[in-house]
Structure formats: C-alpha cells, structure tokens
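Table 4 source record.
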Amino acid sequence: MENYLVSIITFAGLYALLALGLNVIWGMTGLINLGLAGFFAFGAYASALVTTAGGLPIVAGVVVAIAAAGAAGAVLTMITMRLRGDYLAIVTLGFSELIRLVASNEIWLTNGTDGISGIPGPLRGDLSPAEFNLLFCGIVLAVVALVFLFAQRLRHSPYGRVLRAIRDDELATAVAGKATRAYKVQAFAIGAGILGLAGALYGHYTSYIAPDIFRPLITIYIFLALTAGGTGNNAGAVFGAFLVMAVLEGTRFLEHVIPGLGGVQYAALREIAIGTALIVVMHVRPTGLFPERPPRLNLQNK
C-alpha cells in the first residue's frame, strides 16, 4: 500500500508539472495548447534517446529534453503566429498526433510501437524498488517546488504582467509598445520546456516509454486540473493536478463498492465519476478552487 501511495504522489507531481507548463502558456498568456501529450512525449523520447543510445548521464538527458521541447514550442509558435483560437488549438493537436505517429513508425529511432525500455533511473540498480520509488518521489516533488517558485517569480515579474496583458488584450499591449509576438514565442517555449521536463522525469521513473502511453486523454486531464484549480494561478494548477489524480485513482475502488459490473462498465463509470466531480467543482467555484486574483496596486499620495 505504501508503494502504491508513493507512486500516486509521484504521478501527481508529474501532472502538476504539466499543469504548471500549461498555466504559463494558457493561464498567463492565453495561448491555447491542445498538444500537451505531444510535448510530454517529446521530452520523454529526447531524454530516453540521449541516455540509452547516447549513453549520457540522466541530468544531460533532462537538460536536452527541456531544450528540445522548448525549441519545438518556439518553432511551432512562430509557424502558427497568425493563428488564433480554434485554429491554433487544431494545429497544436495535430502536432501531438504527429509526434505519436513519428514515434510509432520511425523504428530506427524510437523502436516503433515496441517502445524504448531500459531507460536509466537514479540509483535504480543500487536501491530496492521501494527505496527507488521513494527517492524518485522526493526528486519529483523537489522539481515541482522549484518549477512552482520559478513560475511564481515569472508571474509577479514585469515580464509576467506583460504576458497577462497579452492574454487580456493583445492589441492594447502592442499599442503600449510591447513586442507581443516575441513574448508569445518565449512564453510558449517556457511552457513547452516544462512539459518536456515532465516527460523526461516520466521516462526515467517508469524505465519504459511507448507511443500508446502519450494519449490525448492526458491533455484533457491537465486542462481539467488547471480549470478546477484556477486558471492563471500556479497554486491552483498544482492543487488541481493532485485533485485530478486523487479522483482518477479513487474511482478505481468503485469496483468494490458496486458489484456485478464488467471491466468496460467500470471504466465508463470512472469517466462518469470524473466528469461529475468536475461539474460539481465548476458549479460551486466557476473560476476554480483557487481563482487568479487581480494584482494589488500600490498607490501612494504624492
């Protein structure tokens, strides 16, 4: 039971990283990104290839994953700079599907649908499975704390205020003399880098990745987490990720509460429970459990 709880906390931390990355892109800047699973996979494969085929240390793999995912995000944003709203969402969703198809068919690079196994983890061979799970859980939580602090500094900085201004009114921000296009590219790259970081950690934790793991459903779960926690609020993103993971895993025990249902029926019941929980949260708190608060103005009489 202890190993199960540690594993759940670890995966919740990975979801929290994904939610923080999405919050930079969507919550702060207002750019719609439905390609979360693609950037998640991009980071996982980049780090896995660097550490297995390349033989480099895990830290180098993680750094390459962040840089590669960030660069992919920047290029994607520059290509789709003139697209907005639904069109940008479609392109990012297509990018996610492109990554999955490449991972499935380029056997020489990704081993196709068989996936990449034997991805190294820190001290995996020197520790017992329980000790490794506990160590990696601590690593993930430490990384979440660091990324959260970074996102908080970003949000409260003048740079973050420009991002929120672009989200609220891009035309007015451009009139004020800000290079809105450059800011959007940078914000998307930062958020994509965080998504790639989560993918790299996932690969080094599970020791195995395959295209089928990075399903579009991951994107839906992260959007649910950020929406329920509070769009634009980093604390809400982290809390929402842990909440979604708690609901996802808590619904597994419905099998013992409601007897007589088949496996497919239990799976459908879980999805119903998750959707119902989100509806309840959004009905009670339409802006999320931790809504974004407007910045305080420090007005001094002169």
